[in-house]
Specification:
heterodimer; A: mainly alpha; 13 helices; about 75% helix; about 0% strand; B: about 280 residues; mainly alpha; 14 helices; disordered N terminus
Chain lengths: ~290, ~280
Amino acid sequence: MNIIKRVNKSWGVILLLPVFLMLIFFILLPELWGIYLSFTNMRIGESISFVGLSNYLYTLTDSIFIKAFVTNMIFVIGVVVLQMIFGLFLALFLNQKFRFHKIWVALILTPICITPSVMGTIWKYILNFHIGPVNYIIQQIGFPRAMWLSGESLALMSVILICVWKSIPYVFIMVYPARLTIPEDLYEAAKIDGGNIVQLFWHITFPLLKPVLLITLVFRAIFALRTFGVIWNLTEGGPIRTTETMSIYLYKQGFKYWRFGTAAAVGTIILIITILISSYLIKNMYQTSFKVNH
Amino acid sequence: MKTNNKIKGVSTGSWIALILIVLIFVGPVFTIILSSFKLEREIFTYVPKIIFNPTLNNYQNLIYKWPKFFESIKNSIIVSFFSCFLVVLISIPAAYSYSRMAKRGLSYTSIFLITVRMFPPIIITIPLYPLLNRMHLLDTSIVLIVLYTVFELSLITMLLKTFIDTIPYELEEQAQIDGASRTYSFIKIILPLMMPGIVTSIILVFIAAWNEFDFAYLMTGTASKTAPVMIAEMLGVVGQGGFISWGIIFAAASVQVIPVMLTIWFVQKWLLSGMQIGAIKG
């Protein structure tokens, strides 16, 4: 009686073909081609010649790239750690029985709908040295006005905090539904045994949310690593390259100096770091879920 | 977690904290939207003006001085519309195959979908740029439509698969026993039941395409520029003389942001489940 299984098996493959062909032709092959270009001295309008590792040697010995790499790592760690902590806190906080809680959740998701250039508009105005509301408030409290985005000492911190603001809702989206699936009985039982809020968190909430938190961590780290638009619209990597990350270095090499080979090498380095981040954490994730199951 | 047994409901302290948190997330955006209805001199007052006479002055200036902005909005609409259409069209058969046909071997290929999604998109701009240049395809909407489609395909395929998974086999089997063809039973039974999934997909792809910046910035010139790139350009000009003012940019930003913001608010419930599935599975 099993009609569905009887159906020609090749249809299963044929229906998948369009997706796979598109992914192979427009993502996989260009990515591989990009990696190949990192071993050439490609420039627009010139023939390509193979140059071995010289793009990598150039990049890895370029002090500007080293600085961009370090900035990028500070950026990723800062943005990811802060958004995970605040996002987790927010998800647990919203788990209280607030009235109209759907409205609050909807409002908190607002940063998700903001494109990088509008991010730039909003924060360049709010943090503006002369007319920004933040400097106004700070001066009212009695502190001097600060150059949030145009000062060397504060720019990276400001950019990190702005990206955290944008990213918290994404962590919230992952953690909030996961928290709802933890049965309240667990907490009731633990409370009867005299557990306080901190103990409840470390012994019930955190272990049960750990798989979701790890997946979120991997994806958020990968996305933070490649951030381009928001930083570009806020500072263009300045002042004096203090907010220049690898993506911005890549953009300048490729689309300002037309050194496509070097840009491709930087892209490949970003790809390698992406693979390192995801493989390590995904392996970790599987081990954790294995332990939980036994 | 903090539900107190003695007092049902939430403490005043929590309410105050909630209002502050919501203000942090909404405040900056609202500031821009409210300021877009202020006169230029009111935006520049040192003491921020909370009460003011709303005016459409900035919007009028945007229309008269920056007609290019509305062309970019038109481009954004075209790109977003076709991306949604193509993604859904190509994903539905694949999702159906994963849910109903792909057993064992074939279902492992979904790992490929997940892996591809993790690749940094910026790498592919390097080989693509010279190629499109030679094919005279740079600065066309087609390039953006194809790129947005391929980068959303894997997520939407996995999303739609989970929706089809929830539809019982028996419904389809029954129809086929009654003599309906597989295609007919798909169109009459599966398609209507997976409508919520399709709507969720369209919203996710629309927001992604409407807001995408990196590809649009690199791949478009004057003809096919989308709204996010146009706003970035306007932002680059601000401060360099009286050519453009904050007020006009605020108006442009509001026009770009408000449709998406309303969408997110009204379909929040669908988005929560959709985005979570997307983020985990692809």
